[in-house]
Amino acid sequence: DCWVQLPPLLFERQGCSAFVLEDKIVVLGGRNETGALSAVEQFVDGAWESLADMPSERGMCPGVVMHDKVLLVGGQDDAHDPLHEVEEWDPATGLWATLCELPFHRQCFGVALWNGKITVVGGFEDDSVEFVEQWDADTGLWTAGPALPMPRA
C-alpha cells in the first residue's frame, strides 16, 4: 500500500468533510478565499464531478455516515458564525433534511458515531468546553455524556 495523488478538487477548499460512500470519495462544504462553500464533489472513474449543492454554505463541518447517509453537524457559515443544525444528506436521492439542532452551540468539536449514536465532543463557544453529548436517531433526543477531564477544542 502507498499514497496515490489524485487530481485536484474542482473547488479549492479547506475545512471540508470527506467520506467514502460505495467506493466513491465524497467531499462536502469547506471554505476558500471567497468564504464558506455549498459545493459537493465526488471522485468517480479517476475524476472529480460536481453533485447538487448543499442547502447552505458550510465550512468546518464534521460529520459521520449512518445508515448510508451523511450527517453533517454544525460548522461555520460564511461569516464564521457557528451553525447549529444537524443535516442529513441521502446520496441515493440527493435530498437534504434538517434532523435537529445541537443543544449547546459551539464550534471546532469532534464528532463520532459511537454505540449507534452521534457523539459530539468538546469544542468552544467563547472558551473551550468539556461537554460530551449524544444524539439518538431512534428517539430524536440529546443526552449528556460524561464530561471530558478538561476542556478541549
How does this model look, in words?
The protein has 153 residues and is mostly beta strands. The protein has one domain: Kelch-type beta propeller (Neuraminidase, 6 Propeller), CATH 2.120.10.80. 0% of the residues lie in helices and 42% in strands. The chain contains no helices and 14 strands. The chain has a four-stranded antiparallel beta sheet with strand order 1-2-5-6, with no helix packed on it. It has a four-stranded antiparallel beta sheet with strand order 7-8-9-10, with no helix packed on it. A four-stranded antiparallel beta sheet has the order 11-12-13-14, with no helix packed on it. The termini are far apart. Pfam families: Kelch_1 (PF01344). InterPro entries: Kelch-typ_b-propeller, Kelch_1.
Counting DSSP E segments of at least 2 residues, the number of strands comes to 14
Q: For this structure, what is the CATH class?
A: Mainly Beta
- Give the mean pLDDT: 94
CATH topology: Neuraminidase
- Tally of alpha and pi helices: 0
Q: Strands of the largest sheet, in order across it?
A: 1-2-5-6
The helicity comes to under 10%
| Alpha carbon gap, first and last residue | 33 Å
What is the H/E string? EEEEEEEEEEEEEE
Note the beta-strand portion.
Answer: 35-45%
> Architecture, CATH level 2?
6 Propeller
Work out the count of structural domains.
Answer: 1
